[in-house]
Amino acid sequence: MKAVIFDLDGVICFTDKYHYLAWKKMADNIGVYFDETINNRLRGVSRMASLEIILERANRKYSQEEKEELAKYKNDYYVTLLANMSENDLSDEVRETLIALRNRGYKLAIGSSSKNTKTILKQIGLGCFFDAISDGTNITNSKPDPEVFLKAAEYLNEKPADCLVVEDALAGIEAAYRGGFKSAGLGEAREHQEVTYKLDSFKDLLNVL
Ligand code: B16
Ligand code: MG
User: Fold this and answer.
1) Active site residue 145
2) If you average pLDDT over residues 132-141, what whole number do you get?
3) Sign of the CA dihedral running 103, 115, 87, 167
4) Which residues lie below 8 Å from residue 124, measured CB to CB, with a gap of 6+?
5) Could you tell me which residues come within 8 angstroms of residue 103 by beta carbon, excluding any fewer than 6 positions away?
6) Residue nearest to atom 12 of ligand 1 (CA)
7) Strand, coil or helix: what is 78?
8) DSSP structural state of residue 124
9) Which residues does a 6 A CB cutoff place in the pocket of ligand 1?
């Protein structure tokens, strides 16, 4: 293994709670039921695909224009929540593990569906840390399509077979598998049939690499 590609939300930091609050505000606003179980289905899924999942519970159809307005409403509020993030939102465990991997000579990249990736990395003090960033701004197909990880490998100038993908979402492990990457799963991602390593914690990466 020459490189490690990290998912962002649910792996490096926990923006999932802010996604939940923002989607909940939007859903309440249009009177659509939404809870934490539905929120779990949104992990690693793009903004518009997340909205489609939430609207499964709606009692009417929404036009493309209305959907874009709803997604914008959610994102505007989400971005105000991100503004409160700081270096305190990066755990010592994640920071120390990243540094240990860097010291072992691995190239390190981000592979996230989020279009807010660069803002989040800056907020938590990792704005200049990674060798490459592939995110929602440079892809057309979101996880489980492998595009985001294939782009990360390309930016790193490495072959997929030489990169380990670290993910918290089933869609992310599926994307890694389809792209020819080995994967390490945290949380529900441990349950995917094709996951290479089931991690007990983020620092457990130091035992599998
Ligand atoms: P945005 P990841 C994903 O991040 C989130 O898990 C998912 O809930 C979100 O909808 C997606 O990013 C898009 O985020 O609205 O900021 O573009 O897990 O791929 O890092
Ligand atoms: Mg994730």
Assistant:
1) no
2) 96
3) negative
4) 12, 13, 85, 86, 87, 89, 90
5) none
6) 114
7) helix
8) T
9) 7-10, 19, 42-47, 50, 75, 112-116, 136, 169
Distance (Å) of CA 38 to CA 35, 116, 158: 5, 22, 36
E strands along the chain, which residues?
Answer: 3-6, 107-111, 132-134, 163-167, 182-185, 197-198
Q: What is the pLDDT of residues 73-130, one digit of tens each?
A: 999 999 999 999 999 999 999 999 999 999 999 999 999 999 999 999 999 999 999 9
- Other C-beta atoms closer than 10 Å to the C-beta of 49 total 15
Ligand 1: residue whose CA is nearest its atom 16: 114
Read off the amino acid at residue 112: S
Q: Which atom of ligand 1 is nearest to the CA of 19?
A: 8
Name the catalytic one among 9, 131, 135, 200: 9
Ligand nearest to the CA of 46: 1
The yes-or-no answer on residue 7 being catalytic is: yes
Three-state DSSP at 29 gives helix
Centre of ligand 2 to C-alpha 37, Å, is: 15
